[in-house]
Amino acid sequence: MTTKCPTIEAMSAYADGELAAEQRTALDEHLASCARCRSWLVALRAAQQELRSLADESLGFDLSQVVRGRIEALPRPAAAGRAGSRSGWRWLVPAGLGAAASVALGLALGLVLTAPTALPRPLGGALEVFAPGAPGGLCAGAGSCRVLYREAIR
Amino acid sequence: MNTDDAGLAARARNGDSKAFTELVSRHQDRVFRFVFRMIGSREEAMDITQDSFVKAWQAMPRWRPDAQFGTWLLQIARNAALDVLRRGKVVAFEPLDADLPVADPAPTPEERVEARSRVASLDAALRMLAPEHREVLLLREVEDLSYAEIAQALGVAEGTVKSRIARARAALLAVFAPAGGTAQ
Fold first, then answer.
1. For position B94, what pLDDT does the model report?
2. For residues B147, B153, B155 and B160, what is the CA-based torsion angle, rounded to 10 degrees?
3. Which residues of chain A does B11 touch, with a Cβ-Cβ cutoff of 8 Å?
4. How far apart are CA B150 and CA B141, in angstroms?
5. Angle of helix B158-175 relative to helix B147-154, nearest 10 degrees?
6. Which site among B39, B57, B128, B137 would you substitute to test the A interface, given the most A Cβ atoms closer than 10 Å to its Cβ?
7. Interface test with B, best of A40, A57, A87 (most B CBs within 10 A)
8. Using CA atoms, how far apart are residues B155 and B60, in angstroms rounded to an integer?
9. Cβ contact (<8 Å) for B180 and A13?
């Protein structure tokens, strides 16, 4: 009498020798009486044989020196053991401290910008080097300065 | 000096590029072969293979000795290949050639062994499979990885590998008639 056919998963595990002894024996008994399952297994083994022939494929040249050239041109990866760690000193600063500093800076800026006349005026003449004038009036190099100078003294 | 994969990888992790290039020589064919069969383009596979090694070098500080270097490397290459497939850069799903022997109920041996070579037929059948089936078959049948190694390369549980291999085999036998026997 033919027992119920096993699942594909059981057949596949059987082909890989991954079944427990008891299951294997049961499947052996089933195979003895089921031509359909036997033919599936024969086909699988034949396909496996053909798939193995694909292992002959090769790149056809030595890639190692090409890769070496590329990796030696790269910045060196972080040393082993530090991977994934945050670099530098910044990880020592608690996250809350950064947030507090941002709030404090915002408050300070708000106070300064809204104060009517609290700020001292800039020193007169300190910014006069940036006197208004067309961009062409700026010195663009020794040659152009000489031209402007000659025109000025004419 | 330790010249097995783990020894070389440990040296590479500490910045030894020479040790790393030795690993490249050892694993380049396997990575190329896997990527090529995944995406179906030799040229693109060459680029991905090269890029995978460069990525691996940059990721070396994260490599741990409890991971087999070859499997870890395949994981990097596999992710790159899947990226290419997702972007649709390579035509991976070519239609089956009309001459390709498929799971015909009664093909004669003469019909099976004809025009196209067996490898080309198998290749075309592989490309008809979903990438998750194709990759698991390549890792198991071509690269001879254990269930545990495949689980590591794919980042899934061993039980998932077992069922995925079974489904992949059934899918392959539905579209490919091996020379030595046909599933009924």
1. 42
2. -30
3. none
4. 11
5. 100
6. B57
7. A57
8. 18
9. no
CA–CA separation, A75 vs B85, rounded Å? Answer: 30
Which candidate, B52, B57, B59, places its Cα nearest to that of B80?
Answer: B52
Q: Which two tokens stand for residue A26?
A: 């049961």
This prediction has a pTM of: 0.68
Q: Is residue B46's pLDDT more than 50?
A: yes
Single-letter residue type at B171:
A
CB contact under 8 A, B61 and A71: no
Question: Does pLDDT of A95 surpass 50?
Answer: no
The whole-angstrom separation of Cα B84 and Cα B89 is 6
Contact B153, B138 (CB under 8 A): no
The reported pLDDT for the residue numbered A23 is 94
Q: Name the helix (H) or strand (E) containing B127.
A: helix B118-128
- In this prediction the ipTM stands at 0.79
H-helix or E-strand spanning residue B104 = none
Is the separation of the CB atoms in B57 and A63 below 8 Å? no
Q: Which chain B residue has its CA at the smallest distance from A78's CA?
A: B61
Looking from the CA of B110 toward its CB, the CA atoms found within 13 Å total: 0
Alpha helices in chain A (DSSP H): 8-15, 21-33, 35-52, 64-72, 95-114, 142-153
